[in-house]
Amino acid sequence: MEPNKQNDWVARSLRSVWHPCTQMQHHAAQNNAMPLIPVSHGRGAWLYDHEGRRYLDAISSWWVNLFGHANPRINAALKDQLDKLEHAMLAGFTHEPVIQLSEQLSALTDHQLGHTFYASDGASAVEIALKMSFHAWRNSGRADKQEFVCLQGSYHGETIGALAVTDVALFKDAYGPLLRASQTVLSPDARNAQEGETAQDVARRAAADVARLFAERGDKIAAIIIEPLVQCATGMAMHDPLYLTLVRELCDRHQVHLILDEIAVGCGRTGSFFACQQAGIWPDFLCLSKGISGGYLPLSLVMTREDIYQAFYSTDVTRGFLHSHSYTGNPLACRAALATLQIFQDDDVLATNRVRAAKMTQALAPLARHDKVRHFRQRGMIWAFDAIDAAPDFSRRFFTTALEHELLVRPIGSTVYLMPPYILDDGEIATLAAGTLAVFNQVMAG
Question: pTM for the full model?
Answer without folding.
Answer: 0.96
